[in-house]
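Onboarding guide, step 5: your first structure request.
Type a short instruction followed by the sequence, for example:

Predict the 3D structure of this protein.
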Amino acid sequence: MVRLTRAQQQERTRAAVLAAAREEFAERGFAEAKVDRIAERAELTRGAVYSNFPSKRALYLAVLVDLVEHTGTGKAPVSSPDPAEALGTFARVWLERLPLLGDTPTSGHLRLRSLAGVLDEPARSALAQVTRLESLLLASALESRAATRTRQVRLAELVLTLLTGSGHLADTAPGFGDPFDVARACERLAGIDLAEAWDPPHLPYVTPAQRCEDSWVPPAESPDEITGRRAGLDADGVIAVLGAGRLAAAEEVMRAAGQGDRVTVAVVTSAPAEIGRLVRLRISDLTGCLRRVFAPEDWPRLHLVFDEDARIASAIGAAADDDTEDAVRVRAGTIVARASGRGAGYAAAIAGDSATDSAADRSGGAGR
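The system replies with structure tokens like these:
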């Protein structure tokens, strides 16, 4: 008889709980599902379930994350389509989650990654921020294909609004609407002039980064959620630690960074089991779609890490809270600038080799 290690046994228990929970949620939905029944399905105790997942909400989100991360994405295309075609293709990929004809309402919720009736107020606030980050990632890929390379965030927000609305209608009014019409509409949105600009009014008042010469000892490598490869925390560039309530600030650091700068955003939260899983769910879902539409050279140049154990936050001396906004600039194994508070990523990004550096000198400046 093969003797399992403690880690192997824990992983087996977790897998059994997830499988049982997926059956329970598919049959009864989130509201009517019971942890006791999930434990019974998994042939485990209620305590064994809670030792792996602290709440029913955390378990539901874990089921959705598992569903998304085990959905095959196929190979990335060799070359990316033009922005209009890219939006149509992205929409068709996204709409594959719509419930099928034989799905029950509750199983359709899972297929849709539905969060209706699931989130509490802190998670709802985090969802607004993570949606801003989703829009930035989609926009970054579109900008790489646009002829003028202008900012495309408002366009991405509009596309995601249309797709999310289609999902809600499919959830509450099955059979209404034609997904092919929605995909064609997304294509047409590429031609709308939304007067895109990036000029946040608070940036001129951001506290400058503090110059320093602190040793940089990067923690063990974490995967970049966009490329799936190592995040490269030992490379020169800017590292911003953003709480789940400050994810919109990712655009500030990305736009302000120089053309050759490596920009890494590490996401932290004080509630990793729920808000952390919510962020992972949405970003994994979005990046899975992007990889099927855009060639690797057009993927967002932002590197994204889920800092669930706060190793990166600790390494730069930041707290792992939802309101965290701290950043450093790293050069040759040394932290040469630090910033904290609102606009920290922007401040660290413009703290270049010279005190005369400014955001206007950088390719990601306010005109983008």
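Each response can be followed by summary notes, for example: Confidence is low (pLDDT under 50) at residues 354-368.
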